[in-house]
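worker-03 picked up job from queue 'complexes'. Input manifest follows; two sequence lines, order preserved.
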Amino acid sequence: MASVVDFESVVASFYQPLYQFAFSLTHSEADACDLTQQTFYVWATKGHQLRDQTKVKTWLFTTLHRAFLESRRRQTRFPHYELEEVPMDLPTLSPATVNQLDSGQVLHALKQVDEIYQAPVALFYLEDCSYKEIAGILDIPIGTVKSRMARGIGQLQSILTRGERADHPERKNE
Amino acid sequence: MNNDQAKEILKLYRPGTADAADPAFIEALELCERDEDLKTWFANHCALYSALRSKFRQISVPEGLKEQIIAERPIHRTPVWQRAVLAAGAFAIVALVAFNIQQHWRPREPHDFAAYRSYMDSQAVRGYYMDLTTNNLDQIRMFLGQKSAIADYVLPVDLEKNARAAGCVATTWQGKPVSMICFQSGRPLAPNRQSDLWLFITDRSAASDTPATSTPTLAKADGLITASWTAGGRTYVLAAEGDAQFLSKFLPASAVL
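worker-03 finished. Artifact:
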């Protein structure tokens, strides 16, 4: 059983990135709080079983993602796309355009991305996890991680570009 | 690897992370250094990534979430049955340790014949409850046999002739069986006394230095006069209050006074 000090230390280190990841998945503050709390609840009861303390972060993200999937009661497996199958032409989106957006607009765009790609995209931007760690968190092969990321990033940037054009119709003919 | 292939790979590159050391990106990164168009594209990719990353990282965490998580931390409680098992285990260990200590540190009781005789004398002096009260010697032998006590004893002729049986006790000394036969010598008995002459019989191996011969040897101990001898693998102690002359009435003439 993790000690009180250990628990508080783990919470202090990871509650923020976990919440951000949860919010990226749920797009709801209440649901994100629930998921984050549930994750630490599981850590408090089962975290002592983790022998390799260097994997706490991955363990927490994995647990949160599984809790999210359970909450959605997903019955069907996500189809896997290999990287080679993914069209790689991303829409043109400039850094300057993104800088003009606020966080809520970007997350609103993420919400419109196919749900299957949302977690990979969130981890792509939020965390410094290696692709191997992300594969562990999402419980899918690395190739699938990359293919989902590529598609998700494409969708996100496309949505943001469309939004930009909707906001600035004069640019449609550019 | 050509320019387009490098772009496809680097679209998943995250600047400022461990991707810089990821072998999957190294070749494409090297190509960036040599290809100006690719280099420009890559710089834009990194800027776009950083811009989007900063938006994700601006997700604000509700105030008090950390405190709420800590406050609502589940307290792990060991189930009652587990606590019972743990308590039983702990008790067993403590008992085992205590037993071992007792075995190793308890002063060992003297194992010699003097100790045996002294113990039996004290039995007679302190008082006792007879397991069987009877004047019938045959019943006493039968009873002792049923109690797995020593029953194959041979009584001195003079004891049988000059004293009257009162009963018996099947007892032990250091785990060894001892048959205690109580007699009345004919003297007036003290109040609450049922006998004044006692014969203790045990196996000769019960003590380390039991008498070697069948000739009774008299000795004074614990306020009693005793006669001790060994015959047929059994060691006998006859004890009474009084002196050697009194006791000799119940012993063979060969007894050493």
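worker-03 released lock.
Chain A touches chain B through 46 residues (CB under 8 Å).
The two ends of chain A are 61 Å apart (CA to CA).
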